[in-house]
Design goal:
alpha/beta, two-stranded antiparallel sheet, 2 domains, Rossmann fold
């Protein structure tokens, strides 16, 4: 796969050498970050099934892309997430209960944007791309060495905002990275029905920027691709489009039933690419850690998320007034305390 050289896809001797050169400490940091993201995702699904939080967009299988991008950039760099990267802010020190409270609809679910350098989550598809370009361009105009990274899925490349953002970024040479995870499904629409271009990275040529492809399940390849793009951006080389190619291992979200629109046998063939077990096996084989050490890392982060979930369950639900206060500058009359105390109108009364 073009772009950053594959690590997990190499034969065993070359993989061991590559990981030894990468180093035990950074490799273990990446593994722990993936483990934290996985624990968050698993616990969020459980909470949704319990009715504690609302509909939740899972990211099972995309931990490598998110962990790599979070750790490859500097703390002062900006991240612009979508609804599927809710937990990346936890990689910068934000307590995991904060994004979980967001899915609970609680006012406490908004992280400190300036402190963590993670923009508010964008739910409308591709709307975070122009935001990232603006932040990156502004940084360059101010003479700062700050890079912005915007996340998206393959479906986002069909939206107008994606094309507008890519074009502007290339014209002004903004230090921005467009990180597109191509999991081959935009909810129920396969990639073959989204675009005639077989490789999303090829779209970069139309805007005059580099386009690279990496294995989205290979955390080391993703890390190298993001780091290289960031270094080029800091040198004045402008934007980069990274296509992280993989497959959506689970449903689009907790309200989705993928068996209605895709061949589950095909999906199961991708299970061997799941990034955490694959990375764990590679680290053990390379002698960078023991299986017991890595399992202990996973156990600890899972236990910490269990404690967070217990506190979340005990927390009261937000009131209508609290919800309105986070949405409206001025509370509309329909949500005013006086209006809410009025009897509810029922059809037929």
């Amino acid at each position: 796969m073009e772009g950053a050289a594959s690590v997990l896809g190499l034969d065993a001797p070359r993989r061991r050498r590559s990981l030894a050169e990468f180093g035990a400490e950074p490799a273990l940091r990446l593994f722990e970050a993936m483990a934290r993201l996985r624990a968050f995702d698993e616990r969020a699904v459980i909470l949704q099934r319990q009715g504690v939080i609302g509909t939740y967009p899972t990211y099972f299988g995309e931990e490598a892309v998110q962990a790599a991008s979070g750790l490859a950039l500097r703390p002062e760099d900006w991240l612009f997430p979508t609804y599927r990267q809710t937990a990346v802010v936890t990689l910068r020190g934000c307590p995991p209960e904060v994004p979980l409270l967001m899915w609970r609809g609680h006012p406490g679910g908004w992280h400190d944007v300036a402190r963590y350098r993670v923009a508010p989550v964008c739910v409308p598809i591709a709307t975070n791309y122009p935001h990232a370009v603006g932040a990156a361009w502004g940084s360059r105009l101010q003479g700062d060495q700050v890079v912005a990274l915007a996340y998206g899925g393959d479906g986002s490349t069909s939206a107008g905002e994606f094309h507008e953002a890519c074009n502007l970024a290339a014209v002004v040479q903004a230090p921005v990275i467009f990180l597109v995870t191509n999991n081959q499904w935009a909810i129920s629409t396969p990639i073959s029905k989204q675009t005639r271009v077989p490789r999303l990275a090829d779209k970069a040529a139309a805007y005059g920027m580099p386009g690279v492809r990496v294995d989205s399940f290979d955390v080391f390849s993703c890390y190298a691709a993001v780091k290289e793009a960031a270094e080029r951006a800091r040198r004045g080389g402008g934007p980069t489009l990274i296509e992280a190619v993989g497959y959506r291992l689970g449903p689009h979200g907790t309200a989705d039933e993928p068996s209605l629109y895709r061949d589950l046998a095909e999906a199961r063939r991708w299970d061997v690419m799941e990034p955490i077990e694959r990375t764990q096996a590679a680290l053990v084989d390379a002698g960078l850690a023991t299986r017991e050490q890595l399992l202990e890392v996973r156990r600890q982060v899972a236990d910490s998320l269990r404690d967070v979930a217990d506190r979340l369950v005990a927390a009261p639900l937000p009131t209508v007034e609290e919800i309105a206060a986070t949405v409206h500058r001025v509370t509309p009359w329909t949500l005013s305390p006086e209006r809410l105390r009025e009897p509810t109108w029922v059809a037929g009364d």
